[in-house]
Amino acid sequence: MQKPPQPQDFALKETSPNIGAGAVTGDKLSCTYDLVEQMQYLYVRVVKAKDLPGKDVTGSCDPYVEVKLGNYKGVTKHFEKKSNPEWNQVFAFSKDRLQASILEVVVKDKDVVLDDFMGRIMFELNDIPKRVPPDSPLAPQWYRLEDRKGEKVKGELMLAVWMGTQADEAFPDAWHSDAATVGPDGVANIRSKVYISPKLWYVRVNVIEAQDLVPTDKGRYPEVFVKVVLGNQALRTKTSPSKSINPMWNEDLMFVVAEPFEELLILTVEDRVGPNKDEVLGKCMIPLHNLQRRLDHKPVNTRWFNLEKHVVVEGEKKEIKFASRIHLRVCLDGGYHVLDESTHYSSDLRPTAKQLWKRSIGILELGVISAQGLIPMKTKDGRGTTDAYCAAKYGQKWVRTRTIVDSFFPKWNEQYIWEVYDPCTVITIGVFDNGHIHGGAGGGKDARIGKVRIRLSTLETDRVYTHSYPLLALHSSGVKKAGEIQLAVRFTCISLINMLYLYSHPLLPKMHYIHPLSVIQLDSLRHQAMQIVSMRLSRAEPPLRKEVVEYMLDVDSHMWSMRRSKANFFRIMGVLSGLIAVGKWFDSICHWKNPLTTILIHILFIILVLYPELILPTVFLYLFLIGIWNFRWRPRHPPHMDTRLSHADAVHPDELDEEFDTFPTSRPSDVVRMRYDRLRSIAGRVQTVVGDLATQGERFQSLLSWRDPRASTLFVFFCLIAAIVLYVTPFQVLALLIGLYVLRHPRFRHKLPSVPLNFLRRLPARSDSMF
């Protein structure tokens, strides 16, 4: 079932940016930073000053440096009463916006009323040297300050001035002329940065038993359970079936924890003394760094832990130590991969323990070139504006480009690299509007603009893909295009044999198959892992904020959506469409719609019956020929978000409103009632289909169950006769007769159902025993 192409505006477009990849040039950038367009910058590194003259009555000065180029001016921080200050700050001026031929570096003394001029250094832009990595950094030099007449004055300034590109190592931490309007407090929030996700472990707590518990009420059988708390995660065992002071459980509880281990594992043994009333019988705390690390399925050693109890005596909390203890098997499970993203879009499948990692099979390079036609995301000074940056996530490494201030056509031209351990993984790239530039403490959020996913297994190795991806976002008002992002991607394979060998391996580490976790457990643990990752990255400097991490990790992908349900239904129909097409084709053969084709099928069938050893070779040869035929029309571009496949182009507004509703719902009761009734009607249809499938299955079961004695008698005698006939008749003759009967001419057919089908439909099912 071929879907019609989606609108051209939402489609992927191949581009031809002016990048170094594939070009034969003398520039070193072509081989080191070749997936992005070159951007020329003038760099000024202000290192330090010495022997600055005193300007105030105390003979001291409060110096700072201004770097001026045309209308752009960068300023260092100032020092109080210091004549030998050290700044070590870098300023980068984009060559595209240079409006002057003279660079002026001015040293000033901070004053209450008017800052005093102390001296300056002037540079002709034509005289500034060019430097391209991997050249060593330019060594700073001392320059004598001059007054406004060009005469030497007291004081020297150490500077390095050079022309370079964005490949320069000074680029990420430099002050940029593009962001001249950003105040000193917001500069940290606009820089590019690389982040590493915290290393996540599963903690397995096997609660075995407890001994010598001391309940307050000795006259009743205790109903004891164990509650385990780790950070903001809390789980509890079932109530012990052995209602005694020596209860047993033998239950596994799983938690997620990140290195470095900051939390304690807290276990409390509690007795259910009444409805919603629990009494603590004992408590123990276990530091995580003392736990054994397990790499395989072999069980770790068990340990007994003493339980402590706190009682309040005369208003003071006292600790009582007694002989109660608990038997546990606790370990850090390093053989699992801790899922922190949706399993459909995983970027990493390695186990936690580094000892179990295989060697990398390749390298992924991403060039974030630019974006076009971004929509205004906020209002500033009465006009729409967007401060866009790009974030990308693959494996444990997250990257964030610098923020381009106030531009709907930002140019980043930043290149990043990742090691690849499995080709069946996905890189996610998101574009966001920076809401923390002006001051950064306004409590605003970084608004999402759009997202792109690229699956590595769909890329040819060593080929540079340059495409403009539409940034599509689903809103409560429908699907909207928020602009386009231009990317360059290259997947380089180190060892083709190792990569092909991986296709025979399980997707996840072997512990997921030897000791599998339940779907509910995995979903809960994934949610906890997401929370931990977003919290840790939001504490970095500059922070990768919670809303960014959650959007990149698809935190809400499990929520109910009528649109997504329809899309998945039609995906199933698309998969089954091939079988349906084969069924229709075979039906046309049986009904002699094309006599020549039917005669050829008869000949092929007779050959296969007479020479059955040709059946499997014929099938595989047919599949081989289909594959070779389809190679001509293989996809030449990476797949992208499809609005038609997602059913986002013609979705009902109420269904979208339901999809964007909070959980629990925040809509009025009449809207919720209408949606509930709609869900009931859909569920009713599903229920009918499931019931029909169950009925057909039960009819097959009743063939030999004697629920209908006459039908079972007929079937049993038929089986006896069939056994005798099949014993004396060669299989090839039987197959030939059945095949010729199925392919018989329409003149020998009638429209009534066949005898076996009539017999099956008459068999009883258990549906008549249901309410």
Automatic annotation (TrEMBL):
Q: Start and end of every C2 domain?
A: 23-143, 184-305, 345-469
Stretches that traverse the bilayer:
485-503, 569-586, 598-631, 714-743
Q: Which Gene Ontology cellular-component terms appear in the entry? A: membrane
Which keywords does this Swiss-Prot/TrEMBL entry list? Calcium, Membrane, Repeat, Transmembrane, Transmembrane helix
Stated membrane topology is: Multi-pass membrane protein
Q: CDD domains given for it?
A: C2B_MCTP_PRT_plant, C2C_MCTP_PRT_plant, C2D_MCTP_PRT_plant
Q: Which SMART domains match?
A: C2 (SM00239)
InterPro entries the UniProt entry points to: C2_dom (IPR000008), C2_domain_sf (IPR035892), C2B_MCTP_PRT_plant (IPR047257), C2C_MCTP_PRT_plant (IPR047258), C2D_MCTP_PRT_plant (IPR047255), MCTP_C (IPR013583), QUIRKY-like (IPR047259)
- Family of this protein: Belongs to the MCTP family.
Spell out the protein name for this chain. Answer: Multiple C2 and transmembrane domain-containing protein 2
Protein species of origin:
Morella rubra
